């Protein structure tokens, strides 16, 4: 039995990056031997075990062959005869197909170290094209390592394009796709993830609503970058630079989908794009079974982001409606995330990335003013039921009017 550290742990050590997760591969062992040593099996599909003390994953060396569609369409063969090289060749990228023994001796049969130095994301073998999930994974790695100068090798991009055109991407489950998308959006340069998907034709298959934004012009006075798709990438880039959470990044990606529905004869204006985009945002949310908080914020940002930009001009009644829509009294964090998404949208414009966004503090102040209305005095006056609701609304409107008057002095 020989045990090797494999994949990301080896790659990141060689890159000088912090190593978080460690995967191990075991060559020359059987399931029975692993169980006898106290390892606990994980699931029924793969010969993977948890270490009795560390809890880290140890997998028996295995080979695989394509037996069906999609990410799960593989038959695995694990036995003591499978070599380390045979196990490594089934991996996605050369930089993930290296192994180390306990003395840090490197096994690198597919030149991963050379590709690390060349800053290339290159597939290990033609079998890469058998697994559609790898299109998303490579785009995610491109987003992670773009800051180090990594790009996708042209021949790998060609295979990704082949996969995108084959219909295999449609066989991916919502859960697997979302897991990759969510991880990619939280990388340092999530806009690169979208760019790479677009370059290989996968964006058109997975998120046609986002793909449709490229080539759609906006008024240059408000959007010096003009192209709506380019703007969306810039907004996502700003969200990453400002360390926004996943909910905000997802909302940033989907906020302008309605502009893809504007008839060409109406370009570059996009009247009522906020409302038109809601059905598209809903469709994307449902396609990937995005978590509820991501779904809700994306829809609210899609509908109200222009309200955010025009906050200082809004009538107190419109401001109150906005606050009610977000339920700022019970869910203040969601409104804070809305403000963040609006600010990222404003900053995601060419040459305006550093411009201040006074709307943010104004909206926060409005929420504070509305929340400061006390209910107890109204109860003491005898209001109850629907009448109490109307009385609270009147007081909040009064508070917002006073807030707006004070702010405009």
Question: Which descriptors apply to this entry?
Answer:
cca-adding enzyme, domain 2; 409 residues; 7-stranded mixed sheet; 3 domains; two-stranded antiparallel sheet; alpha+beta; Beta Polymerase, domain 2
Can you give a write-up of this model?
- With 409 residues, this protein is of the alpha+beta class.
- It has 3 domains: 1-111, Beta Polymerase, domain 2 (2-Layer Sandwich), CATH 3.30.460.10; 112-370, cca-adding enzyme, domain 2 (Orthogonal Bundle); 372-407.
- Helix content is 50%, strand content 9%.
- The chain contains 20 helices and 11 strands.
- The strands form 3 sheets. The chain has a 7-stranded mixed beta sheet. A two-stranded antiparallel sheet has the order 6-7.
- A hairpin with a 7-residue loop joins strand 6 and strand 7 (74-78).
- Helix 5 (133-145) packs across helix 8 (190-199) and helix 17 (332-347) runs antiparallel to helix 18 (359-371).
- The longest helix has 23 residues, at 385-407.
- It is elongated, with a radius of gyration of 26 Å.
- The N and C termini lie far apart (78 Å).
- The relative contact order is 0.06.
- The mean pLDDT is 94.
Report a brief summary of the structure.
The protein is an alpha+beta fold. It has helices at residues 8-15, 31-36, 84-88, 112-118, 133-145, 154-166, 174-185, 190-199, 202-206, 208-211, 228-241, 246-254, 273-276, 278-287, 292-309, 316-326, 332-347, 359-371, 376-380, 385-407; strands at 2-6, 23-27, 40-42, 48-50, 57-60, 62-66, 74-78, 99-100, 106-107, 120-121, 151-152.
């Amino acid at each position: 039995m020989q045990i090797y550290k494999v994949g990301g742990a080896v790659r990141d050590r060689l890159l000088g990056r912090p190593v978080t997760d460690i995967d191990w591969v075991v060559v020359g062992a059987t399931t029975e031997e692993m169980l006898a040593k106290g390892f606990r099996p994980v699931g029924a599909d793969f010969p993977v075990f948890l270490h009795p003390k560390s809890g880290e994953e140890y997998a028996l060396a295995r080979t695989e062959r394509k037996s069906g569609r999609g990410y799960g369409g593989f038959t695995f063969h694990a036995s003591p005869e499978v070599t380390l090289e045979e196990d490594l060749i089934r991996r996605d990228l050369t930089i993930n197909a290296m192994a180390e023994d306990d003395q840090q001796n490197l096994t690198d049969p597919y030149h991963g170290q050379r590709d690390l130095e060349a800053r290339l994301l290159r597939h290990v073998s033609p079998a890469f094209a058998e697994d559609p999930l790898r299109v998303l994974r490579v785009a995610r790695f491109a987003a992670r390592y773009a800051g180090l100068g990594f790009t996708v090798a042209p021949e790998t991009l060609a295979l990704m394009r082949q996969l995108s055109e084959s219909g295999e991407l449609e066989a991916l489950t919502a859960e697997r796709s979302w897991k990759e998308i969510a991880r990619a959006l939280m990388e340092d340069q999530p806009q690169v993830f979208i760019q790479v998907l677009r370059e290989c034709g996968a964006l058109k298959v997975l998120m046609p609503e986002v793909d449709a934004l490229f080539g759609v012009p906006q008024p240059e006075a408000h959007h010096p970058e003009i192209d709506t798709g380019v703007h969306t990438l810039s907004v996502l880039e700003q969200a990453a630079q400002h360390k926004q959470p996943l909910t905000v990044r997802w909302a940033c990606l989907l906020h302008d989908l309605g502009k893809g529905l504007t008839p060409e004869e109406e370009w570059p204006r996009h009247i009522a794009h906020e409302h038109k985009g809601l059905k598209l945002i809903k469709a994307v949310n449902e396609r990937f079974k995005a978590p509820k908080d991501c779904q809700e914020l994306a829809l609210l940002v899609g509908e109200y982001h222009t309200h955010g930009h025009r906050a200082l001009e809004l009538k107190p009644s419109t401001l109150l409606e906005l606050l009610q829509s977000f339920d700022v009294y019970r869910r203040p964090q969601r409104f804070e995330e809305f403000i963040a998404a609006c600010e990222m949208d404003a900053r995601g414009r060419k040459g305006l990335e550093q411009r201040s966004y006074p709307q943010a503090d104004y909206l926060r102040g409005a929420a504070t003013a509305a929340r400061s209305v006390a209910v107890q005095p109204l109860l003491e006056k005898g209001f109850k039921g629907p009448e109490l609701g109307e009385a609270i609304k009147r007081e909040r409107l009064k508070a917002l009017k006073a807030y707006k008057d004070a702010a405009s002095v």
